[in-house]
Structure formats: structure tokens, C-alpha cells
Design goal:
With 189 residues, this protein is of the alpha+beta class. 10% of the residues lie in helices and 21% in strands. The chain folds into two domains: 32 residues, no CATH class; 113 residues, no CATH class. The strands form four sheets. Strands 5, 9, 10 and 11 form a four-stranded antiparallel beta sheet that branches.
């Protein structure tokens, strides 16, 4: 008997049962394909952990405009979705210089209509600046803040310490100063 991979074939050479020919389907190629597909779709090594995402404790989404969280860099600021917040060294006098393609790579953190007077765990003063497009951007200790497109999960710090879009980017501490420790994850940017 010849079995062709990826096809099913009726086998009718088996003895009949009660006058009817007995038929069965050769399902080995289907089962093998199912197992291979399941293995290909499963995450490598089982489940994802905070350590594999570059974050000892991935911050939960809080919905707050800004919060302090522990990442692979220590205490850093995150937005309401738990994404690390960065500052751009080229910004000056509380004004953003990251526009166009830069703002695509580093989305500005929008300032809420009403800024909270204080945020637990955040000692840097919250403020807002008006961007070139007229939108309001959150500032911490006078620095406009951004998230990074290269961070795909809460708590990642892939943008820390890299030079991109003409300047250096650093995560922001709860006081509003740049975190200068090396990032625990790398993106190749």
C-alpha cells in the first residue's frame, strides 16, 4: 500500500462487515500536519515571562496619564498603557523638536485637558506644551515626553540610550530626569 503525504485514501481491501465493505480513512498525514501546525504556533519555550520581555515587572495599564513603574532600568515613568516614557535630548525650553517621521517613531504622550495636581510616585512637575500641529503634549519637569514604537509591550525599554531621529533618547525617571543606565533589551535601531 502507498500513502501519499497530505492526502487521504480509502482502503477497501479490508474484510467486509455484515455484507458491507469496511472502509477507513488514512489520517496520519492530517494528524502530523496538525501537530506540526500546533508546534509552529506555540511560543518558544512555553510562555512569555517578564524577564524575556526585558522587564522584571511589566507595568499594568492604569489608564492614568503617567505613573511610576519598575522596568529593567529601575524606576521609570510609564504612560496609561504601561509603556515606557522617553525624553529627547534635542528638545529645549520645554518645546518638542520631534515632528513628522520622528513623531511616528516616538509618539508624543498627549496631555490631558486637565492636568492632575500630583501623581503618586511621580515627583517631577507635570505640564503641557503646544506642538507644531497644535496638539498638547505632556511634559515632566519641563521635558516633553514620548513613547517608542520599538517597545511592543508594557515595561520594555528598547528606546533607552539610543540615538535616533537626530538625537539621543532616554527613559524618564519619576523626578523627570533622564535614566542613563543601559537598556536591558536591544532592538538594533
Amino acid at each position: 500500500m502507498h500513502i501519499s503525504t497530505g492526502t487521504m485514501r480509502k482502503i477497501s481491501a479490508l474484510p467486509s462487515h455484515a455484507g458491507r465493505p469496511r472502509r477507513s480513512w488514512v489520517a496520519v498525514p492530517i494528524a502530523a500536519g496538525t501537530v506540526a501546525l500546533a508546534a509552529a504556533c506555540a511560543p518558544a519555550g512555553g510562555t512569555s515571562t517578564a524577564a524575556s520581555s526585558g522587564s522584571p515587572t511589566a507595568p499594568a495599564a492604569t489608564g492614568a496619564v503617567i505613573a511610576s513603574a519598575t522596568t529593567g532600568l529601575g524606576a521609570t515613568l510609564v504612560n496609561g498603557m504601561g509603556r515606557t516614557v522617553y525624553e529627547f535630548a534635542n528638545d529645549s525650553s520645554g518645546r518638542s523638536t520631534c515632528n513628522g517621521e520622528c513623531a511616528h517613531d516616538w509618539p508624543p504622550v498627549a496631555a490631558p485637558a486637565t492636568l492632575p495636581g500630583s501623581v503618586p510616585g511621580v515627583s517631577g512637575q507635570l505640564g503641557a506644551t503646544t506642538r507644531d500641529d497644535g496638539s498638547k503634549q505632556l511634559t515632566i519637569a519641563g521635558h516633553p515626553v514620548y513613547t517608542f514604537e520599538g517597545d511592543s509591550a508594557p515595561g520594555q525599554t528598547n528606546g533607552n540610550g539610543i540615538t535616533l531621529n537626530g538625537g539621543r533618547w532616554n527613559a524618564v525617571s519619576p523626578a523627570g530626569s533622564p535614566v542613563t543606565a543601559a537598556s536591558s533589551t536591544s532592538t538594533g535601531y
